[in-house]
Structure to design on (232 residues):
């Protein structure tokens, strides 16, 4: 039985969500996006969403303790029993350390006594240039109901404004406006790029050129993960 814990790392718009969804389908494990969870929580006007909204709108990171709690409560759900894919978490060294400790001491119902190897399989770092990021984010459309991601040029829906999967309405994210994009890219460089070294030192990092066709990137990730699995 495959058991896999993956992290997808990369700048805003590098394609983490797109690849996470393909990997989730391929391996039958859930893709967990802290960004999606926060946006859903804003949409349903929960306390968490109200706290997070001002940070997200301006492109800043939501405080570590809020996001760590989100991840803790998500990882204990039954669908994580064969592993999971983290899209957009961790984003700071503090979050990465919190995840390490969670993987060392899993919360019930998952315990180290399970025959499963409850440890990080790999961190996939999707590398793209700044110009590509801006073009991708300004054309992105997201389904309000199921969070499926589209692009008006590279991945348009069959019917304009409507999700192929669930028929939900597509919208443009508030943080995909030029000012917020600029800020998110700065925040990524300062607060998240130290994680590249963090996971390199743990020998978990796989770097993938993200400036290619979606399918080609997906196949490259699978190939690299097969190599990692064979070495385990
Ligand atoms: P989050 O939702 O995680 O945003 P992000 O990391 O900025 O990443 P994006 O979702 O913008 O991009 P992506 O890499 O997933 O690219 P996508 O696949 O969509 O976070 C949003 C906010 O929430 C943060 O700013 C922060 O405030 C808060 N937050 C979330 N997690 C947090 C945490 N851990 N700590 C603190 N705060 C947190 O692709 C982009 C577009 O490109 C799409 O249109 C897609 O169709 C297209 N595309 C993808 N791949 C290709 C390709 N190969 N070729 C052409 N087009 C492509």
């Amino acid at each position: 039985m495959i058991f896999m814990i993956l992290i997808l790392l990369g700048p805003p718009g590098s394609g983490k969500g797109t690849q996470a969804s393909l990997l989730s389908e391929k391996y039958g494990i859930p893709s967990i996006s802290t960004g999606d969870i926060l946006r859903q929580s804003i949409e349903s006007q929960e306390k968490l969403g109200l706290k997070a909204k001002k940070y997200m709108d301006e492109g800043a990171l939501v405080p570590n303790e809020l996001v760590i709690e989100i991840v803790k409560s998500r990882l204990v759900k039954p669908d994580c029993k064969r592993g999971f894919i983290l899209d957009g978490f961790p984003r700071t060294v503090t979050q990465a350390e919190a995840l390490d400790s969670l993987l060392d001491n899993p919360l019930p119902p998952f315990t180290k006594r399970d025959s499963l190897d409850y440890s990080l399989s790999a961190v996939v770092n999707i590398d793209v240039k700044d110009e590509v990021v801006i073009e991708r984010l300004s054309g992105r459309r997201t389904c309000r109901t199921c969070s499926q991601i589209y692009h008006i040029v590279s991945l348009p829906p069959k019917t304009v404004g409507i999700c192929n999967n669930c028929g939900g309405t597509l919208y443009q994210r508030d943080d995909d406006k030029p000012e917020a994009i600029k800020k998110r890219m700065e925040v990524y460089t300062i607060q998240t790029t130290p994680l590249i070294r963090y996971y390199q030192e743990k020998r978990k990092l796989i770097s993938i050129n993200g400036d290619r066709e979606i399918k080609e990137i997906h196949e490259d990730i699978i190939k690299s993960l097969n190599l990692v699995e064979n070495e385990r």
